[in-house]
Design brief:
By secondary structure, the chain is of the alpha+beta class. Helices cover 17% and strands 35% of the residues. Bound molecules: 1-deoxynojirimycin and calcium ion. Monomer.
Length: 670
C-alpha cells in the first residue's frame, strides 16, 4: 500500500512538471537531514539547491566558470550519468585539535558533457555537518585554459546575522563585522552566518593551484564567488586542458559551537602525502619578538638590536627552565635595513652580533628547539631564489621549524591571495618538507585544511593577531570570541597570545622605546584582562603556541604556571558553548591533562560548565586562573586569582568572567 502511495506521489510530481521527469539529481547527508539537489534549469544552466530538514537553505544557485578563447565551462552541459557512493572511515593525524576524525559522507558525482565533448564531473559530498563540492574539468584539444570568472553562487534562502571580514586579496588582518547577511557587500571566507535557527559558514577546502575565493553580494542574500585575479585580470591559468578546483564548502550546525567541532574542512583534503611524520611535533615557544613590536628593541642591527647572541641564550635558558620546547628569533639576518624598500633579505647571512652556530649549539645542549624566521617583505622572487639553500642551511644547523612572513606588497602587480602566490606558498611547504621542517606562516594564504596532506604546514596567522595591540587601537574584546567561529574554522592560528604586561608599563618606562609604526598612538594596550590572555592559549588553537610577552614579564609571575603545565600537543578538543562575538568555552585533552579556556567580549558573564568530559572515576586537581573580583578590562585588567580545587566528572563549575575577561583551568589527575 505504502509503495503505491509513493508511486502516486511521483506520478503527480511528473504531472506538475509538465509530464516530464525533473532533470534533478539529489543526495542527502548520512542522517538524511541535509539534502542537495543538482538540476539543469530552464536555460540549461547548472544549479544546485540545499535544504535542511523541510526548509530550503540555499535556493537554486548557479554553478560553472567562464573562460577565454571559446572554452566553455558553464553552458549547454548534459548529464551523462550520475554515480552515488558512501564513505565512512576514521582517520588519524599526527597532531591537531582532534587526532582521530570521522569522515562520513554520501557522494554524488554528476558526470556532464557539452556539444564540444568537454567533460565535467561535479562531485558533491554531503556530511551530517555540511557539504562540499568541486569541479573536475577536461577540455579535449585545449593545451591551456584561462579562467575569467567563477559563477558559483550561494543564494542564502533567508536573511540572518553574519560575522565576517571584508574581501581583500592582500590581507586578512581586518576587524570582524556583525551585520545582517543582506547587508554584506563582500566578504572573505570563512563567512559565518545564522539564518532560520541554523549556523553556517561558507569557505573552501584544499586550495591548490587556484586563486582564493571571496564572496560578493549580488543582491539580497545572494552571493557569488569572486576569485583573486592575476595582474592581467585572468583568475586562474593552466598550461594543460584540464583542472580541478578546490572544494566549495558550507558547514551547517544547529549550534554555533557545532561549526568549531566539525572536521569537514580536513575531511575534504587529501590524506597525508609525506612519507614520514615522526619529525613533526607540536611545541610551545617564546621568542625575541614582542620587544620589537613595542619599539624597545629593533629588528635591524643597532644598539637596540633584539636578536643578539646574549639575548638568544637568555631565551634558551628561560625555555629550558620553564618546560617550553622552542625559541624563535626575528631580526637575526641581513636585510632588515631595507624592509619596506628593496626587501632583499639574505636567509643565510646572520647579523654580526648573532652567532648562529654558537646559539644552535647552546640550544642543542639545553634540549631546546629553534624556530627560524624568514621575512620576505613580499619579495617572492628573492625568497624563491634562496629557498632550497636557506632551508638546507637551517636544517644543517639543526633548525627544523621556520616562521615566514610576507609583510609588504608583492612585485609586478601580483596580490597575496592569487594563484601565483598560492603556488608560492605550496612551493615553500614542499621545500620545507624536503628538509623535515615545519612551518608557521604569517601573512599567509588562508588555511583550507592542507595540513592533512602536509602536516608540516602547522600554523599560520591570517587574521589580526597580537601585533596589532602593540601599535594600533588594538583588537577589541569581541575579536577573540569572534576568531573561533570564523578564522579558526579554517585551521590553526598563530595569534601569539599571552601578554602579561597588559598596559606595557615596562616598555613605556624604557628609555629605548621608539615609535616605528605610523599607527602607534602611544597609548596602546591589550584590550583584555590577564585571565583572558591565559585562556586564549587554549581557545586560539595552534600546534606551535607562543607565550608572546618578553620573558621579563613572566619571570616570577605565579600565573605563568599555566603555560608551564600547558601541552600544545592535544589529542581531543570540544567547544562546549559560545556565540560568535559574545563568548566561547573550549576544552582540550593532552595525554591525561585537560585544559579549559573560556572568554567573553565586553560583557561580564557567568557560564555553567559540566565537567562530564573528564574521565569517570578519577579525581582531578583543578587549578583555576580567574579574573579577580574587581577585574575589568578597561579599569583593572591585571586583577586575577588562582584557585585550586579537587573535582570529578560529576561536578559542575560556574565560570565567572569580568568585562573583557576570561578563565583558564588545568585539570591534572591525582
Ligand atoms: C608581521 C608578522 O605578523 C609579525 O609576527 C612579524 O614580527 C613581522 N611581520 C615582521 O616579520
Ligand atoms: Ca601579520
Amino acid at each position: 500500500m505504502k509503495q503505491h502511495l509513493i508511486s502516486l506521489v511521483l506520478f503527480f510530481s511528473f504531472l506538475l512538471s509538465g509530464c516530464m521527469p525533473l532533470k534533478q539529481t539529489e543526495v542527502t547527508s548520512p542522517n538524511g537531514h541535509i539534502r542537495l539537489a543538482f538540476a539543469l534549469d530552464g536555460n540549461n544552466r547548472m544549479t544546485y539547491q540545499v535544504s535542511v530538514g523541510d526548509t530550503v537553505f540555499i535556493t537554486p544557485s548557479l554553478l560553472g566558470f567562464t573562460a577565454k578563447d571559446g572554452v566553455n565551462l558553464a553552458e549547454g552541459f548534459k548529464v551523462v550519468n550520475t554515480g552515488f557512493t558512501t564513505h565512512d572511515e576514521t582517520w588519524t593525524q599526527p597532531w591537531g585539535e582532534n587526532k582521530n576524525i570521522r569522515n562520513h559522507y554520501n557522494e554524488m558525482a554528476v558526470h556532464l558533457s557539452d556539444t564540444t565533448n568537454t567533460k565535467l564531473t561535479l562531485r558533491f559530498r554531503i556530511f551530517d555537518d555540511g557539504l562540499g563540492f568541486r569541479y573536475e574539468y577536461e577540455v579535449p584539444g585545449a593545451d591551456s585554459i584561462l579562467v575569467t570568472d567563477e559563477l558559483t553562487a550561494f543564494n542564502i534562502a533567508q536573511d540572518g546575522t553574519s560575522w565576517s571580514i571584508p574581501a581583500n586579496y592582500d590581507t586578512y588582518e581586518l576587524l570582524y563585522r556583525t551585520q545582517p547577511v543582506s547587508r554584506i557587500d563582500n566578504a572573505n571566507t570563512p563567512m559565518t552566518f545564522k539564518t532560520g535557527g541554523l549556523y553556517a559558514s561558507i569557505h573552501e577546502a584544499a586550495l591548490t593551484d587556484f586563486p582564493e575565493m571571496t564572496l560578493k553580494n549580488t543582491g539580497n542574500c545572494n552571493f557569488k564567488s569572486e576569485l583573486a585575479p592575476w595582474p592581467d585580470g585572468i583568475k586562474a591559468r593552466f598550461n594543460v586542458g584540464s583542472f580541478k578546483t578546490p572544494w566549495r564548502t558550507i558547514q551547517i550546525a544547529p549550534k554555533a559551537v557545532g561549526l568549531i567541532n566539525s572536521g569537514l574542512i580536513l575531511n575534504l583534503n587529501e590524506p597525508c602525502a609525506l612519507e614520514t611524520t615522526d619529525w613533526i611535533r607540536p611545541m610551545k615557544y617564546v621568542g625575541i619578538w614582542w620587544g620589537m613590536h613595542l619599539g624597545v628593541e629593533s629588528w635591524v642591527i643597532n644598539d637596540r638590536h633584539g636578536a643578539t647572541t646574549e639575548n638568544a641564550k637568555r631565551y634558551i635558558d628561560f625555555a629550558a627552565a620553564n618546560n617550553i620546547e622552542a625559541v624563535m628569533y626575528e631580526g637575526w639576518n641581513e636585510g632588515w635595513e631595507n624592509w619596506g624598500g628593496s626587501q632583499t633579505f639574505d636567509y643565510t647571512r646572520p647579523y654580526a652580533d648573532f652567532d648562529i652556530e654558537e646559539i644552535a649549539r647552546y640550544a642543542r645542549e639545553k634540549g631546546v628547539a629553534i624556530i627560524g624566521h624568514h621575512e620576505t617583505g613580499g619579495n617572492i622572487m628573492n625568497y624563491e631564489k634562496q629557498l632550497d639553500k636557506s632551508y638546507k642551511w637551517y636544517a644543517d644547523l639543526g633548525i627544523h621549524s621556520v616562521k615566514t612572513g610576507y609583510a609588504g606588497g608583492l612585485p609586478d602587480g601580483h596580490n597575496h591571495h592569487g594563484q601565483y602566490n598560492v603556488r608560492h606558498y605550496r612551493n615553500v611547504v614542499e621545500t620545507a618538507a624536503k628538509y623535515h621542517t615545519t612551518l608557521d606562516v604569517h601573512e599567509p594564504i588562508k588555511d583550507t585544511g592542507i595540513r592533512r596532506t602536509y602536516p608540516n604546514m602547522m600554523t599560520r596567522e591570517g587574521a589580526r593577531g597580537m601585533e596589532w595591540n602593540a601599535w594600533s587601537e588594538g583588537n577589541p574584546p569581541e575579536h577573540h570570541v569572534m576568531l573561533p567561529f570564523t578564522r579558526l574554522l579554517a585551521g590553526p592560528m598563530d595569534y601569539t597570545p599571552g601578554i602579561f604586561d597588559i598596559m606595557y608599563e615596562r616598555a613605556k618606562n624604557s628609555p629605548y622605546r621608539k615609535q616605528w609604526n605610523m599607527k602607534d598612538s602611544k597609548d596602546c594596550r591589550i584590550n583584555s584582562t590577564l585571565a583572558k590572555q591565559i585562556a586564549n592559549w587554549v581557545i586560539l588553537y595552534s600546534p606551535l603556541q607562543m607565550a608572546a610577552d618578553m620573558i621579563e614579564n613572566y619571570e616570577g609571575h605565579p600565573a605563568f604556571q599555566f603555560f608551564r603545565d600547558f601541552d600544545a600537543d592535544c589529542d581531543w578538543s570540544e567547544a562546549l558553548a559560545g556565540e560568535p562575538g559574545e563568548f566561547v568555552v573550549i576544552v582540550r585533552r593532552a595525554g591525561e591533562k585537560y585544559f579549559l579556556g573560556a572568554a567573553t567580549n565586553e560583557e561580564a558573564r557567568e557560564v555553567t560548565v559540566a565537567l562530564d568530559f573528564l574521565e569517570k572515576d578519577k579525581t582531578y586537581r583543578a587549578v583555576i586562573y580567574a579574573d579577580g573580583k574587581d577585574a575589568d578590562w578597561v579599569t583593572n585588567p591585571t586583577a586575577y586569582e588562582i584557585i585550586e580545587k579537587q573535582v570529578t566528572a560529576t561536578d559542575i563549575l560556574s565560570v565567572n568572567m569580568a568585562k573583557g575577561g576570561g578563565q583558564a583551568i588545568t585539570f591534572m589527575p591525582l
